[in-house]
Amino acid sequence: MIAIDSTPLIHLSRIGRLDILENCSLITTESVRGEVIVEGKAGVSRLKEFFDRVEMVKLSKKDIDTASSIAKSEYVHQTDAELLLLAKRKNCTLLTNDRALVLLTRSMGIKVWWVTTLLLNLVKAGKLSKEEGKYILNDLIISEIRIETGVYIRILREIDKN
């Protein structure tokens, strides 16, 4: 199971590749959905349809308060703290492209993937061809996802090894 953050959804939606998540068991919070579903934005109907396949978790007042404490002490957004708490409680991988959230998640012993980790795993598993993996990676760059040049080169090399 994967607890999914808003950044992967936004960027995959921008490039029309939410389909790469179809075989993943996804879970998220209502606050993540609220960040992604913005009426009047391009692609909102596609995202609404996508969320029909995602397990939506409504956090309790106690969980929201706990997340608020995490957000304040760790200097992350409330939505990120809620998702982190969900991933911890459900013992699942957190998928994000938020550097601060990645570092915090790792520090708490929770498995975390960058969007590029997901992409590499799909190529390694044969669910995406090398060419398709590279094409998606390039489209993500065009969609202005944040990937350092050195990381981009290492990902391309890793795709080619498979």
Task: Please tag this protein with its features.
single chain, 162 residues, alpha/beta, five-stranded parallel sheet, 5 strands
Shape: globular
Order of helices and strands: EHEHHEHHEHEHHH
Note the gap between the termini. Answer: 24 Å
Unreliable residue stretches? none
Helix content: 55-70%
Percent in strands: 5-15%
What characterizes the major β-sheet? Answer: 5 strands, parallel
Q: State the assembly state of the protein chains.
A: single chain
Q: Structural class, from helix and strand content?
A: alpha/beta
| Secondary structure tally, helices | 9
Strands side by side in the biggest sheet: 3-2-1-4-5
Q: If you compute it from the alpha carbons, what radius of gyration comes out, rounded to the nearest whole angstrom?
A: 16 Å
Strand segment count: 5
Mean model confidence by pLDDT: 93
Please give a structural write-up.
The protein has 162 residues and is α/β, with parallel strands linked by helices. The protein has 9 helices and 5 strands; from the N terminus they run E-H-E-H-H-E-H-H-E-H-E-H-H-H. The protein has a 5-stranded parallel sheet. Strand 1 (2-4), helix 1 (6-14) and strand 2 (26-29) form a beta-alpha-beta unit. It is globular and about 45 Å long.
